[in-house]
Amino acid sequence: MPMRIDAINTFRYDARWLLVEITTDTGLVGVGEAGLWGYPDAADAVIDAWRPYLLGADAARIEHHQQYLYRNSHFMGGAVSGALGGIDIALWDIAGKRHGVPVYELLGGRVRDKVRVYMHLEGDTTAALVESAVRMAAQGYTALRFTPQVDGYEDWRQAELVERFVQTVGAVREAVGPAVDLCVEIHRRMQPWEAVAVGRELEQFRPLFLEDPLIPDSSQAVAAINRKYRVPIATGERLMTLHQFRELLALHGCDFIRPDVCLAGGLTTSKKIAALAEGFNVGVIPHNPLSPVSTAACVQLDACIPNFTLQEYTGDLKSPNREVVVQPLQCRDGYIVLPETPGIGVELSALARSGATARRRPIETLLRADGSVADR
Question: Fewer Cβ atoms within 10 Å of its own Cβ: the N or the C terminal residue of the chain?
Answer without folding.
Answer: N
